[in-house]
Amino acid sequence: MSANNMKIALLIDADNISAKYIKTIFDELAKKGTVTYRRVYADWSSTRTGEWQKVLVEHSLTAIQQFPFTKGKNATDSAMIIDAMDILYRNDYLDAFCIATSDSDFTSIANKLREAGKFVIGMGEQKTPTAFVNACSEFKFLDAIEDDADGNNSDSVVTDKKKIADSIEDYIRSESGEVYTSQLKAFLKNKYPGFDERNYGYSRFSKFLNDFDNIETYERDTKVLVRGARVDSIKVYEYIDSLRLASKDKSINIGLLKTNIVKQFPHFNVKDFGYSSMKKFLQSIMGVTVEGDNAVIHKKLKK
Question: Which one of 29, 212, 216, 219 has the minimum C-beta count within 10 Å?
Fold first, then answer.
């Protein structure tokens, strides 16, 4: 099933989600496919549901009544969970469930739906507990999306941007140094279900990537790829020269030299300098002589 042609069951917890988000909910789901079930759960006799009652007809939502029979118990939660399991077992054609709530009580049902092979889209505000966010296949922070649309920046995000940067760098390295942007975004969504560039104030993924110093994007055959930012050659020469100063015999094994350079510059690649091997790269540097498997560094280096 195509990622943008899913059949989706939408279940909304009106006790925890404001009706002001209804347009955003449907806009986001339209990118995924067709919403078949459209159910909103609440005690509709309560005056607190007034805003939701105004949007029911406009969006063809089915209002599911739940009376608070037991004080202190959330009947809406129980009804949604029971309904989700009932819909799951009676409708094989469904590809995904969207659970709109900021309540961690839905963590278990999200896990159950994923275990049953369904794609689970969570939607809620940034106050949503991490347990529920991570239980979903993908999570949309409605307040962050609306803030981005209004040109505002949210005060909080799920995952620290530095952590995202480190994950991107590790992933690129594990994929032989380059990945397609679509591949990278899929990785981030799998690793961090709440990931969305709009959480960080960016309208597009490409703009989000361009803000990192440790990576760069480029085109190949009309497709955009990401790789580690190219290392400044002068910095590499200066580092090799520092090894010369620290070495007594000025001779360093080429393999060990490369290992040290990569530790210092994780994205170092001799091909970025136009050479096919480490030996050829070293031979191009004035002040370095290659003798077998060793590089002899004679004096301060120049290109």
Answer: 219
